[in-house]
């Protein structure tokens, strides 16, 4: 399986398969438009390349990302514009001596000379923005800064390129006006219109993946903008999924460490000010009073508790159960209101769990004797990044021939034995470790396993053996005579 | 990715998982297994303690098999999905 979306750690070197070095003469970019949608902890960058082949039979197109940019990117996907199918991409080894990072995209069909194609490269950057000022009082605004490179690098010639930076609200405090860019364009180097700052158009750029060009023209641009929603990060997510065949149930439990990554609170927290702000609907942008989560439809026995105990300030609207091919079309909505509003720099740790009927997520292949379970990796939190995630899937006791199919590779995987109620030999537990997950990573892992009926009966047999042991003990104890005087047989 | 999509399509088309004993029946299975278990346990305590008594191990066996299934059904019906 070749994953088309990748994540990386800044210090992890990606080993690449040797790929054909793209000749700068094989393609020409007629237009490149990069749109960076600024969120809180997550920035969505979409780059559209309008390419034209200069040579015949070109199958691989190479895009370049800034090295710092690549280190912040946790999701990369390339598609042909208008298509839903992601293209195969291969990343070259991360070279810390170069300022750029190359990614080879395999085109769906070989392009002949002078044929054009529109490619869309979608990336999600995490931890790319930071609050500035770093502290804010309870009633102050929240503003963030985002820094990126001015020019989109490409190993091929570019006729025209633009970079658009979009914020959610039109309140932009400042944006850099690039120097040295006068000879790249004859119009304005930067314009702002509403919530969009456009850098460009920059015309007639040569092949830019070389040191001379980067030193001469590449510069960083900084946008300072107001952000009207709290910036959320999940520092740690531990999801534990347990499959039960006797109960026909799949239990999911999430342990979430929520962190408000906005400007840290300056001064003290005034409950009075908070209540009056809420009453007049003037809550500051960096205060998180409540959170809405979309959980699967058909769930039962939901629980939400933290260190102190059950949190009753929560509301759930459960949607009726849907079959397994309709998972993701209906949701149960859970609104949680933590015990205290989350201000900048504050943490909140809680546990969330629910049961789902196993028939809604598992299928049985009679010919192969295989069960397949769909396990979602995370519940997406809009605009939030999950710094560290651990997913553990506990299969029934005696499950064998375990196969895993992932939508994208996990950072680490391990298998061990987990013992819980009424277990003898223990259940297989698969653990997956992830870093920097975003809404784009909220997909499902498919786990297949075989469970023979002998293995299925292990549990009642184990309990029966224990009870039989008790009876045997009883039979012996009954025959022990502890009377002091001999019993006389009359 | 193709393998993933293929398995996804297969998963959607295959029949859903069905348990060996239907969930709605589990509380009744628990009751119908555990009550005889206790009854047989009591009965086995009243049996004479002669050396060769087939009744004792026989009741013990029946009671433990019923008890095994009863306990598993009981656990599942109260929400501890074992």
Automatic annotation (TrEMBL), chain A:
Its main location: endoplasmic reticulum. Residues 1-22 form the signal peptide. It is found in: Endoplasmic reticulum membrane. The keyword Transferase applies. Keywords: Endoplasmic reticulum, Membrane, Signal, Transferase, Transmembrane, Transmembrane helix. InterPro entries: Ribophorin_I (IPR007676). GO terms for molecular function: transferase activity. One of its GO terms (biological process) is protein N-linked glycosylation via asparagine. Pathway: Protein modification; protein glycosylation. Coiled coil: none annotated. Belongs to the OST1 family. Component of the oligosaccharyltransferase (OST) complex. This is Dolichyl-diphosphooligosaccharide--protein glycosyltransferase subunit 1. It comes from Crepidotus variabilis. The lineage of its organism: Eukaryota, Fungi, Dikarya, Basidiomycota, Agaricomycotina.
Automatic annotation (TrEMBL), chain B:
Keywords: Membrane, Transmembrane, Transmembrane helix. GO terms for biological process: protein N-linked glycosylation. InterPro entries: TMEM258/Ost5 (IPR007915). Pfam families: Ost5. It is a multi-pass membrane protein. The chain crosses the membrane at residues 20-46, 58-81. It is found in: Membrane. GO terms for cellular component: oligosaccharyltransferase complex. The keyword Transmembrane applies. Component of the oligosaccharyltransferase (OST) complex. Belongs to the OST5 family. Subunit of the oligosaccharyl transferase (OST) complex that catalyzes the initial transfer of a defined glycan (Glc(3)Man(9)GlcNAc(2) in eukaryotes) from the lipid carrier dolichol-pyrophosphate to an asparagine residue within an Asn-X-Ser/Thr consensus motif in nascent polypeptide chains, the first step in protein N-glycosylation. N-glycosylation occurs cotranslationally and the complex associates with the Sec61 complex at the channel-forming translocon complex that mediates protein translocation across the endoplasmic reticulum (ER). All subunits are required for a maximal enzyme activity. This is Dolichyl-diphosphooligosaccharide-protein glycosyltransferase subunit OST5. It comes from Crepidotus variabilis. The lineage of its organism: Eukaryota, Fungi, Dikarya, Basidiomycota, Agaricomycotina.
